[in-house]
Amino acid sequence: MTQFSVIDTWTPMTAAEREQFEQDGYLVIPGALSSEEVDHYQGAIQRAYANSPEGAAGVALHQLSAATHCSELTGLLDHPAVFPYVWSLLGWNVHVYHSHFDVHPMLRKPRPFRWEWHQDGGRQNREIEVSPRPRLSVKLAFWLSDVSRPGRGNLTVLPGSHKTDWLPGPPRRDLPHPRPEGAVEVTVNPGDVLLFDRRLWHARSDNYSDFTRMVAFFGYTYRWITIRDEVAGLSRQHWFDALNPVQRQLLGHAGDGSGDHSWGHFPETTPLYGALAEQGLLDPNYPPLIP
């Protein structure tokens, strides 16, 4: 597994970054990946795409369970440039519950209209009683293609909408309807990372450019929320043993006999708690970081 030189310590998100994130529901982290890392992860996804039925047909691929289907992406799970934003917001008792990597070649002709605006979380948005809905999870989008201009399959977001439970739309998803007022296409460069609140209303735009849209998404939530990804049997994969303890935690590993389990009753046995404690990063003023 390719190793890149990384910093030895993590740095929490700043007060200004937290304020902007709480206001807009998302935050762009420019240049999080080096050019070498972009090339490496691009190549990994290109190989996975080439070996897929979609790649053989030259059509779009939306591959769920990113690490399961492309183990080289595990280096992104706790990438030091962006993972601190996750535990700064959610704390140490977390795992990746949903991930995917996407490859979208240029569309040769417009596809039929479909209203794709949504909040992440699925049934959470119907079954939780409070309003506004709780955050519960955040997502990191690692951009590996150039979407510095609109029209390249950019993620489209409605800034500040993460405190809004419902978005006006058509009576059926296949009925044409204008884009929500105030929506913007997020423009970023290869190596930039987008952090966003799961409640942020968002949709993928179509790619009519000469660029192939390529991006990997990792969604983080509390370990007492079930994992959507296919992770059964990962611990028997040859590459799993090469992961560090935090990465194994993020892929759902728990219950190893040390006392660690998904409810986090024994913090000292939870790998991420130990890593943060060792670096003096457990903020006693923020409940998710308190033992």
TrEMBL record:
Any one Pfam family here would be: PhyH
Please name the InterPro entries in this protein's record: Phytyl_CoA_dOase-like
Membrane-spanning intervals of the chain: none
Question: Can you provide one Gene Ontology molecular function annotated for this UniProt record?
Answer: iron ion binding
Q: Can you tell which superkingdom this protein's organism belongs to?
A: Bacteria
**What is the name attached to this protein's record?**
Phytanoyl-CoA dioxygenase
